[in-house]
Design goal:
The chain is mainly β and 419 residues long. The chain has two helices and 29 strands. Among the domains are: 11-142, no CATH class; 299-418, no CATH class. Residues 1-9 and 18-31 have low confidence and may be disordered.
Amino acid sequence: MTKRIGLPLLVLTAVAVLATPAAGRIKLAALPVRQRVEIQLDNAGATLVEEERIVPLLKSTAERGNNRIDFSWSNTRVDKNSILFRPLAIRAGGEFRPIREEDGQKEVAVINTAYPPGENALVWEVYAAEACAVKVRVSYLIDNLTRLFSYRALANADETHLTLRKYIVLRNYSGETFGDAGVYAGFGPRFLKPVGQQERIRMLMHKFSDVPVTKTFTFNWYAHGALNDAKPLCSKVLMHYELTNDTEHKMGTFPLQPGKVRIFIDDGAGGEAFLGEDRASLTPIDDTMKLYLGEARDIVCKRIIETNERHHIRGNLHDQEIVIKYEIENFKDDPATLRIVEQLNNLGRQYFGKTHGDVEWIRGYEGRDKTSEEITFTYPEGGTNPVLHVDLPARPEDEDEKVEKVVVRFHVTLKNLWQ
């Protein structure tokens, strides 16, 4: 009966199989350390490890049989169905040459793979035409060797440009130490780092400099509701940085993966001030990344339903005519543009009832339109969520002078509603 040789995690051992069963399997040598390791982090759910080693083989003969190579692991979660063994080259002097083939038979070839029951191991049976040292590559998927992405954004003092640094963080809780390993995320640079057990390694993938940025102010009544009991017609005004991932805006090198973003601003005195922290969403090339900065305390918007009339068409069909008035004050020292998001499906449900899907709407009613000319419209989230853009002047330089109140109206009719 043959005897197996138990070895530590991810250790290859070459043994020879003798023709006489009583002789059993004989350990030749524990192999040298890995010659090369590559950790592929392309997939967030499965990490591919490829390692190269030099394996000594005996000549396969009828008496001696083929070589067997054990691959065993413990205290790790290696997907045994993902393990591949590939002979690459034979050492000849101080160099390696390709494996040759003669009459359809390679000099070195894997004949069989066995999975010993109840063990975290497998055994390759390998044919060798002559005794040699072979460079082999072993690849496998392993758990608890993971990555995440993070960012650091530094805005200039006037908040028109920023520097965005993108990092990849390798977390090794797999139970294995890999030594110097090539680390690659599927894009960006390849890193060579010593990867130890229970380590977190942070690496700078890319630095985007002088990226144009837009600071936005957004009012969304149906997202946030009343500000408080004292201001029941006001709601939050949220601030964001928006940066576009394209070459025109000095980015567009690759998609930006989701990750935590720490945001700073140049304080104008040679230092940096911390603005906040956000989690960025996946931002493909040509898309926009939004970074949340907090609530604006110096822009106030009051939303008032000025007109709400129902017009009967026929049967159970109706039109709902609504005029929304906004009273806005900007206490900032600089001009600003307020984005007002109106969710017309929610507007219909609030003032009519069930809308039976997306509402049909027009501006004005029967040729009359009280919508303010100062408003410009965009539709980034579809036709039922128009965004109204209102430009606001800076507060007066004279502190005793009252802040100008900007008043605009949105006149909308929700069409063909039925009960």
